Amino acid sequence: MVTFFVGGNWKMNGDKKSLGDLITTLNTASLHDETEVVCGAPTVYLDFARSNLDARIGVAAQNCYKVAKGAFTGEISPAMIKDCGVEWVILGHSERRHVFGESDELIGQKVAHALESDLGVIACIGEKLEEREAGTTEDVVYAQTQAIADNVKDWSKVVLAYEPVWAIGTGKTASPEQAQEVHEKLREWIRANVSEAVADSVRIIYGGSVTGANCKELGSQNDVDGFLVGGASLKPEFVDIINARA
Ligand code: PGA
What we know:
This protein has 246 residues and is an alpha/beta fold. It has helices spanning 16-28, 46-52, 78-83, 94-98, 104-116, 129-133, 137-149, 176-193, 196-201, 215-219, 238-242; strands at residues 4-9, 35-40, 57-61, 88-91, 120-125, 158-162, 203-207, 226-229.
């Protein structure tokens, strides 16, 4: 069995006071030993999060650019993320895709550069409501996964996050059956298009309104290897989500 992976995505929330309180809660909580935990901090708080979180908890940036340095006002590079002692980056999040207009192509380039820079990548995919209703969920997530897979040489540094856009921040969680169905199909896609070994070892995590109340059932599905948690990752209930498989 693969190591369960729980990511928190703080998005553009919190300040040093509230994030400091959350960090204290996480540092002093009893966390399941066999679950890998990573918190996605806002850029300006990466250093703060890494300096204050216990070493057993990883930190992720929420985005980065596709090259190491240069005249790209407002962007940050994997090298800078690593320089803060941070080991992960979230790429392709639906808010990057749909609020900031990032294309599959740009996300692929970012994935390639982050991996070349030795960062771990939490690569996000997921269909919009109208795509699900039109019956095109598989086409959408396969195309997004292809654009990522084309840029991955070493899958051991990649976690794939399936996050249906209609479930993000809406309180409308995918049912355990809906999540399992897409995760299983994604794993089969990887088996056919990447390799048997990667299909068996890659973590496919679910995101979209995961809470302390629904995490156990979602996490008990065969192909759900963890979560990416937004809103609930800012609350003490994040500890219950981390311990969903304990
Ligand atoms: P949510 O966000 O848990 O608030 O729905 C999930 C995400 O965007 O990763």
